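Ops channel
N.P.: pipeline sanity check, posting one input/output pair.
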């Protein structure tokens, strides 16, 4: 999964992991209610692993993955998500390549990166490529409206539109802005308060 930061690559990878091992999928979507889904949602799934290559760049992480992959899955697949994989060291990429060249049965590895050009061609050529595009203002606004309804937040449509416009296509940034302004004026910030707060933060 390749694309800019904050557009849902890792979130999509986690949803895919849920769907692949869900006990009662509905039209390809995870049910979110079965034991397997609940375990994954509470980050306690036997068959799903995740590594942030921005924090663990060396070969040790890939070696741990190779050992983990040898264990038989309890569900349909063993699924491992490698986030920010472009930050791996050369030895780590070489170890990953060996794992991709000789895949183990029922093992799915999902690579997520915001800089696909830094992933060696030998690795990229062995993956199915999905490109994530920068989110539109409408995409972000729609998601912010859903969050506000779900959480019972009371922000004006003008305020949400301003946040969507200032987020630069990054949903994570938009959600952070929403969290920061939601308590202004006792939970009822005006558009001017939202504009002043966000513009002030962006100048810091």
């Amino acid at each position: 999964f390749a694309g800019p930061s904050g557009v849902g690559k890792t979130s999509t990878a986690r949803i895919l992991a849920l769907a692949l091992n869900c006990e009662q999928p509905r039209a390809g979507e995870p049910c979110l209610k079965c034991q397997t889904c609940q375990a994954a949602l509470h980050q306690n799934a036997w068959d799903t692993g995740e590594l942030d290559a921005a924090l663990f760049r060396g070969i040790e992480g890939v070696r741990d993955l190779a050992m983990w992959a040898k264990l038989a899955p309890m569900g349909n697949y063993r699924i491992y998500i490698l986030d920010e994989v472009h930050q791996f060291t050369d030895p780590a990429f070489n170890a990953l390549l060996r794992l991709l060249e000789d895949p183990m049965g029922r093992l799915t590895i999902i690579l997520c990166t915001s800089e696909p050009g830094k992933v060696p061609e030998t690795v990229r050529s062995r993956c199915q490529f999905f490109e994530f595009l920068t989110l539109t203002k409408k995409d972000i606004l729609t998601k912010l409206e859903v969050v506000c309804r779900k959480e019972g937040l009371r922000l004006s449509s003008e305020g949400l539109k301003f946040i969507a416009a200032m987020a630069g296509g990054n949903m994570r940034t938009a959600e952070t802005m929403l969290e920061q302004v939601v308590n202004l004026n006792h939970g009822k910030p005006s558009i001017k308060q939202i504009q002043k707060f966000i513009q002030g933060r962006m100048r810091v």
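N.P.: looks fine end to end. The chain has nine helices and three strands.
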